[in-house]
Amino acid sequence: MSVRALRSTFGPNCHWCGLAMDFEEPHGRPESATIEHLVDSTLGGVRSQKHRRLAHAACNHARNEFRMQAERQFQSWIAARQASEKTLTDK
């Protein structure tokens, strides 16, 4: 599904912030329209048209960065938990 098709289906506003996107902006610029995958395939989602929306490049990037930060924090928490359990069983 293309940006044009998604725009005709969902309108000209960003899925995340609700503000209008600039469809004249070159690809990759903060206010340009990008295709956002609501359920990322790397997280078990299926790449289908119903999981796609339009979002500002900046909103899309920020969402992905926050998700990556959360994943790193979780992995750190798991490692600390495992280390803590290991020290308890070593006693």
From TrEMBL:
<protein>
    <submittedName>
        <fullName>5-methylcytosine-specific restriction endonuclease McrA</fullName>
    </submittedName>
</protein>
<keyword id="KW-0378">Hydrolase</keyword>
<keyword id="KW-0540">Nuclease</keyword>
<keyword id="KW-0255">Endonuclease</keyword>
<dbReference type="GO" id="GO:0004519">
    <property type="term" value="F:endonuclease activity"/>
</dbReference>
